[in-house]
Give the backbone structure.
Amino acid sequence: MALDNVLDQSPEFKIHGNDCISTANGSNAWKETQHQTLWPRPLVKTWTVMLFLSTSLLYCSRMTLPICAVTMATQFQWSKTDSGMALASFFWGYCFTQILGGHASDRIGGESVLLLSTTVWAIITAVTPFLAKFDWNPLASMMIARFLMGLSQGVHYPSLASLCSQRVVEGKKGFLMSTMGSGSYLGTMMVGSLGSLMLEHYGWESVFYGTGLLAGLWSLVVWRYLLKGEVISVLRLSNHATSSSSFSNLRWLRLLKQPSVCAMVTTHMCYCSASYTLISWLPTYFKDTFPHAKGWVYNVIPWFVAIPSAQFGGWLSDCLIMQGYGTAAVRKMMQFLSMGVSSVFILFLCIPVKCPSAVTLISVTMGLATFNSSGVVVNVQDLAPSCAGALFGFMNMCGAFTGLILVYLSGYLIEVTTSWVPVFSIITLVNVVGIAVFLMFGDAQRVDLEETRRITHI
């Protein structure tokens, strides 16, 4: 039976006879499988908008506590260490579902996984104020709520990586991931502006209620108009072969022994640690250092800059690759701008500066940091497109774990030293270590070809 006929007849197929004998033909089977799962152009546009909004709402939910931390700490009499524990609790939960979410998305498609995830964390966000007001221990209640939110949000980015790997053509992935990633900056800006106003006029509870409601509406729209009655199948090879949707048969140790994979994971860990710490503590930094500054200024301007910067970074990386520049060189350049150059501006925060200067430095830092979406984030699809979701989940889990440690450590250092210099210094050091590893050992040569070329002959 011809391969094309089998592909047309069934969402699952086996390779018969001599259709795929050689290694080269095994690679062709992978390409054919990938081609059959691509979104058509109209659907790409629709899902890009919805995923952009989903990521925006995800960060609205994630940033509710950092925005409200000072007010809640005053109400519940939390110390900086207590606030650090509450902020870090999110990342404990965030660690546990990364690989599971990526693997599930690789196997059944990320659309349904994202819908379920968003519905769950929308509900958790909306009920958080009720949990925080339990009489027995508000801090413990908030830690539990943030832990559960981390669990439900942990599948989001691995699912995006899986979707991009399975549904989008080469040469467009950098821009698409940057577009979806820029949703995080829009979400942070939204909760920083509208959230700050709601916090001031209606109390911190309203920030959680509003975010939960909007996320619930997103789930309803996707379920009603994009997924209800439709199932987008992911083609699979036989149970004896490894395909684009199965990571279970890949040898983890073989993959993780590759220097390029280890460099990518290490760099992502460093980036996440620095980024999570900066995002979690920035509102508190401005509140403590510039108590008379308007919250909507420092909670909005940096993210307003980050959105077009992310779009530009994705466009630039795709253009350079399409013009013949090496993919590995482009990934390294984007990551150097994201972690190396941005660290220079973070260091300036270690000296006394005025509020406008601090906002400017943070804005430039955040703008450059967005280039990460065109560096390490897309690199996982260069190295292992057959298991991009699961592998991204693994490295995101590692990043979340180191992030929660650095977020908590930062709170402890702030309380002990009463200074922000140690925090900014550590962030810079972590960035420098990460980019140095990636520049030395990073690559874009695919490393999972051996596994994906194993085709069963019947």
Residues 259-289 form the longest helix (31 residues). Confidence is low (pLDDT under 50) at residues 1-36, 231-250, 451-458.
